[in-house]
Amino acid sequence: MKRTNNIWRTAVLVTVLVVSLWAGARFGSTWMSPTAFWGALLRRAGFETQTVILYAVRLPRVLAAVVAGAGLSLSGVLLQGVTDNPLAAPNLIGVNAGAGFGMVLVLSVAPTALSLMTPAAFLGAFLTTLVIVSLAARSTSRAALILAGVAVSTALSAVISCFTYADTDLLASFNAFSVGGFAGVGVNELILPAIAVTLCAVVCAVLGDRIDLLCLGDASARLLGARVGALRLVCVLCASIAAASAVSFAGLLGFVGLIVPHIARHLYGYRTRPLVVASCAIGATVCVLADLVGRTVAAPSEIPVGIMMALLGAPFFLWLLVRRGGRSTNE
Amino acid sequence: MMHTPRLQAHIRAVGYGKKTVLRDVELTLDAGELLAVIGKNGCGKSTLLAALCGLLPFEGEACVDGVSLSTLTPRERAQRVAMMIQQPRLPHVTVDELLRFGRSPYHGLSTHPNDTDRAAIEEAVRSASLESLRASYLDRLSGGEARRAYFGLLLAQTTPLLLLDEATAFADTAWECRMLGELKRQCRERGRSVVLVTHSLEQAVTYADRLVVLDGGTVRYFGTPQALTQDEELQRIFSVRALRATDGEGRAQWFFSPRED
Asked: How close does chain A come to B64, measured CA to CA in Å?
């Protein structure tokens, strides 16, 4: 019965993802008739303008939304699992503060070096997470990771504020980064993040059955032969790499890494393998749809995807919470 | 041929950080025997079990069937020693899924059950009377039912050495008798050995083959459980007096009542 339900859920999930991918490519601020859309997709003569719009603007945006959504959701589902905290999200392990710090550093030292922005954001996020993980490793408490994350993030945010307070141009650039979005992202920028997110998902799926043991608590998992410390480290590093990859090109997209894991866990339970796949698929769908709404609802103006996601996601999350009688999906 | 005990442990010191809880603990236990560990609250009973199962590092050595546990990988150790902890977590997983976790030490990255796993799980279900609870979620069970499920997990692991920390807490009288009887059956028929931490002196005298009394951070007594019914000094540790009664069929039963002096 449970297996049949999961097959149905997966079928619905895949269908919704495919439809959202199609809609993301099909619709935008410029109207495209069905004939023009297919003509552009197949690069037929007579549809040159639509071909440029589709291949240079819409498809890269859709791909960016897929990679960012999958990366942040994967990160969230891993972090909520290993910290046993339903509020855990990539920003809690310093991803946002670290990426922001990397960006601000480059913007203030070499504001014209655009090619350094993405690597700086990735390195900032990843190195900050490493610092937080090594600080938390001195304690055996699961809360140590979150507490260390809050402390380091607060310190970095203060440094960012110092930089932006002194330089208003820097503040404007940082604000655009902190809202998050996919405008102007090129396919070349997405190759490395896409590979990183895929590798992280594969590693966690391969280790899935061992990671599942962590839900019994550290003592029981160790009694069943799990290397708890090593598994937790792998999960946190994968979470860090996946989220850092996403924010490096998409900016500080909040919320998706928090709500999508709850939806995935609500649908698929505790098992890591289906959770990894489902959270990537749901995260991609949410980001593609939020971006689509953001660029069509007030066209030709655009509402950044981070704002759209918070506007649409928060009521949905509350609805889910009320429907479950206030229980978190970790329970 | 030299006789190899099931468990041979010499713990020179074990504790938490700089605080030593137990010193100079020597234990041996043969295959098919049940060892009861008793002592007052905070005397180190759970610490002893945590050391024996590898949860807590200690100075000394513990061997199961002649193999030092410190030389084994976590998975190899989990194939030799299983433990039922005092306060297990109750995640949103079914009893069936929990029992399947018990087979994970025998698998690598995939835990897809084979015929041996299925047979072990079925036997654990029967032994722990879990037939009606298999599809129930752990976080929806009563305290006693959840501990029964963890007793099933202990048996599904099919290890030669079983460690139980206050396993009968929350158990009703019927299940307590059934569980202790089942442990004795596992010793008798499967040749498994059991180390049972308990607060019940009656349980220790009735079911154990050997007894360890912990007091003052070390072993006060190690031997047959009958000593508890005869040795006034041992009874003083627990501030009790042993009382003998005879049931309707003439069998002796021991009870312990608080002493005034």
From this structure: 15
